[in-house]
Amino acid sequence: MDRRQFLKAGSVAALSASGASKAAQAETPTSDKALEKFAPNSLKPEFVVDGKTVKPAEGQRFAFSKCYGCFNVCGARVSIDEATDQVVRAWGNPYMLTSNTEPFSMSVPPSEAMFRLAAASQYNQDNAATLCGRGNAVLDAFSNKHRVTQCLKRVGKRGENKWKTISYEQLIKEVTEGGNLFGEGHVDGLKAIHANPNYANPLYPDFGPVKNQLLVSTSTEQANRWDFMHRFTHSAWGTPNVGNKDSYCGHQQAAGWGLGCFDVVDEIALPITDFEHCKFAIFIGTNPGLSGNSLNSGSRRLAKARAERGDFKYVVVDPLLRSLTSETDTENGEWVPIRAGGDTALLFGMLQCIINHKRYRQNYLAAPSQAAADKQGEVNYTNASYLVVKQPGHPLHNRFLTAEAMGLGSAEVKMVRREADGKLVTSDSDQQASLIYQGEAKLADGSKVNVETAFALLKKRVNEHSLEQYAKHSGVPVAKIQELAREFTSHGRQVAIETNTGCNATDGGQCAYAMAMLATMVGAHNAKGGLNHMNGVGFGMMYEIYDGPLYKLNDFAHAEPVGFNAERSGDYEQSEEYKAKLTRGEPPYPANQPWNNTFVQENSGEMLVAHANANPFQFKAWFIWSTNPIYNCSGLKDQVVDSITDPDQLGLIIGIDPYINETNVYADYLVPDLLQYEQWMYSRMWGSEYIGDVACVPVIEPKTVKDAKGNPVCMEQFVIDVSKALGLPGFGDDAFSDAKGRRYGLHLPQDLYVPLFANAAHSGEVLPSPTQEEIQFTSVDRIQGEFAKRLKPEEMGPTLFMLTRGGRYEQLEQRYDGEFLNPAIRMDVQFQVYNEALAQVKDSYSGEYLDGQPVFDVDRFWDGSAVRDRWSETQYPFSFSTFKPQLRNAYSAQLPRLTALGEANFIQMNAEDANKYGLKSGDRAQVLSPKGTHLEGVVQADHSVARGTISVGIGFGHSQFGAQSVTIDGEVIPGQAERAGGINPNPFNVVDPTRKGASLYRDRTFGSTCRHGVPVGIRKV
Ligand code: SF4
User: Fold this and answer.
1) 539 with 760: CB under 8 angstroms?
2) The Molybdopterin dinucleotide-binding domain covers which part of the protein (predicted)?
3) Ligand 1 contact via 612 beta carbon (within 6 Å)
4) Alpha-carbon span 477 to 459, nearest angstrom
């Protein structure tokens, strides 16, 4: 109903209110016809309830699927109009924790599950099983006029957005064979690139052969669709140059948390709050359920905790006041404004208060082994009491003192000081060890070394600065830091601290490491009411579903990628550059470009920077599938755009996507891809704390063009057909085997997905079989034939059962085990107060080892110089931050239900700060970057932003996704102005001037791209 209709209807209703109520009494809406009369614009109800049975509304069918309105991938259920084959409504899948606080047992039949959701069932309506606002808006993406459904080839220059339709077969032929494809000269096809055995750059042989000059930019969030692409890229073609979005999105926080949880540098962790029993939670740089942590499940659990429990409080530490706290009502939830990029200072202040006032969990921290932890009633232990050698020049300097060095055992066993008698003993002792100790240890060879416990080092570390200094750096007053520390240590283990994409200054990794340390101080990991580390852990991650009980899907001769990737992930000291410098007698440090030996991050942005610098080489071909780094990667666009628009520098660009975005607009060819309800997908659910996955099949006919054999064109089909044309392993005939060694081919996407689903259904406890009624009720009968063609009869039942529930999860009888989570949803590891592995990684500029403990420092460039020394407070007095509004994301500009909520974003700042510059809400202003660029938009000045900070939401300011007109086959599809509204802060953001050539601004520990705490200025226009 449009606004005019709405007003008209409203006034009629107001005039005849009393009459209407009588009419309503007289004519109860019991039939579809009557309902249409009362609510002419409403959709049909999902189900008609008759007694205790439900059936879909007339003309509709029901199915389970997944939501991909964001990367959480919540379980979904949908109603499909039979006449139009369109999904007309989407809700949550009640079997999945992401959409239902207490998910139904998989033993509940689907029709019974749906009945329980109906009001008539009088079942607990907490279980309404919903999707969030974004999830409800994605329905409009399917038949959008700007959707790419045909195979397109560019006409004119790259980026002009002029295309012609070609057949899929022509596209495959041209991209594989190459030739003078655009009248601009010869282009190497994929065949020639793959077959070339020469080095990509003879000066850098360690970066591998010419076939490494294929770059594939993707997104791991596509779950097993990403696996499909990875099968091609990594195992069939064999290039190490796979880029994804994590490392310019928030990888450093997950990796930083990993430092506090594992004794390696290449793991991730990202726990969520156990809302149901938590007493006090801190959210750093995000609101609960926002910024990528499930809006659907996180916000529901928060609301329930707030509404039902008077003993739950939470604090949001964020430069920006967002929706889930308020300025005036601070009883349950409080906003603590912080200067953008000041988070680590706050956390160090809290750690200082906690350690200096002995408010940590002493017995937990002093247990050096599992045996000692068991005696204390703890389920995990830490290395807080382990002795670190502090003897410069000694081989064990900054490493743990080992039993081997003491002549008492192996190098794997470390040493501690037994608290009871002060004796140095091995760390497998079941006795409590000293937390604070500094002294000498006599080694087996008679020498002596200085040693100090990890905890004592941490105490020194957090006392390197005063509380006042931490307060100044963070903008959080001393009293508030003390209060937060006190509150955090006043509820036993029932406290939590979490983030997601929240702290992306140059110390984002360190900030997350410090967060993990705070949780360790109170033993909140794996605790009831504490932190749950199973966030988003999929069934497919816990079981080998590619090498499953029925099918061995990876059973083929894999191509092994050779060489470092172009963004230089790995050990610089193993590189040719390092060795050559030593041979020439030159100092090997700094490296020519930054290396990263902490986490192989696969940063699409850094790969493109390497290409722009032609160092180690330029790419010859680029696949852009389901990703948009030019729009999303902070600082990237102007660094690389010339090098990708020039066909002489990059011969072949292929975009695979349902939409033209700001990156694939430069493609030579566009391959249409599927949207969520059209896909095969097996995926983890972000925000689910049970081990579980969604499993879904196409529930509507894909809208993409068909190939000559009648199969819908999509990413998987493209990858299959390119592989077959090139004769790559793992695709075509003889692609994998079953458990008995029989070989199978992979010619269609379902050739892989069907056996994958069968493996998932038969892993762990084999699922039962569904009834025929369940199969029909969930519309699984429509796809049953695809399974019957590929599976053995006895494999059908459990596999279809999984689909009749939309996936599977491991249901727990008991969620808790005493004070802790059930072991099935715990991450039982040794938590790290000192990460020894990190202390063995060298900085590629200075050649110095990194520190094994969190570091608080000012923001620094790659060369170690302070950012503020170059970009002064006087010239750039503000710190910049970006944020993800709750109902927008980078793909949402094409959803009218979301653009209707607001077409533009604002330059958000504190009213006092704005006043100083003569600005008020509604004024136009320019935010000034030291990069020499500016961002012009409308000011929103109030008290919802921390002093000294300017913040801009992302997901606006698009030039593509239908924001501008597109020409296909000479016909212009006009752009839609509402899609272009607002400003995109990413291209404006800074890069690192201490790097050579094109660059990005980097996290100091993980090399991820940063975007927060960046100096900026402002001026009125
Ligand atoms: S949180 Fe994301 S996946 Fe879940 S319902 Fe919302 S948009 Fe869909």
Assistant:
1) yes
2) 894-977
3) no
4) 21
Q: How far is the CA of 407 from the centre of ligand 1 (A)?
A: 56
Atom in ligand 1 nearest the alpha carbon of residue 131: 5
Where are the strands (E) in 845-1000, listed by range?
A: 878-883, 907-910, 924-928, 934-942, 949-953, 966-968, 971-973
- Distance separating the N- and C-terminal Cα atoms of the chain: 40
Between CA 502 and CA 961 the distance in angstroms is 27
Q: What is the pLDDT of residues 946-985, one digit of tens each?
A: 999 999 999 999 999 999 999 999 999 999 999 999 999 9
Q: Which two tokens stand for residue 75?
A: 């379980």
Cα–ligand 1 centroid distance for 138 (angstroms): 10
Q: Which tens digit of pLDDT belongs to each residue from 399-409? A: 999 999 999 99
Question: Which residue owns the Cα nearest ligand 1 atom 4?
Answer: 74
Burial of residue 450 (CB within 10 Å: 0-12, 13-18, 19+) is middle
Cβ-contact 193, 214 below 8 angstroms: yes
The label of the residue with tokens 């408010």 reads 359
> Do residues 726 and 211 lie in contact, with contact meaning Cβ atoms separated by under 8 Å?
no
CATH of domain 858-1020: 2.40.40.20
Residues above pLDDT 90, as percent of the chain? 80
Amino acid at position 5, single letter = Q
pLDDT digits (tens, 9 = 90+) for 412-454: 999 999 999 999 999 999 999 999 999 999 999 999 999 999 9
**Taking the model in full, what pTM does it have?**
0.94
Where do the domains of the chain lie?
1-42, 379-460, 858-1020
**Does any ligand 1 atom lie closer than 6 A to the CB of residue 991?**
no
* 716 close to 754: Cβ distance less than 8 angstroms: no
Q: How far is the CA of 209 from the centre of ligand 1 (A)?
A: 41
CA distance 640 to 636: 7
Judge whether 355 and 361 are in contact, CB under 8 Å: no
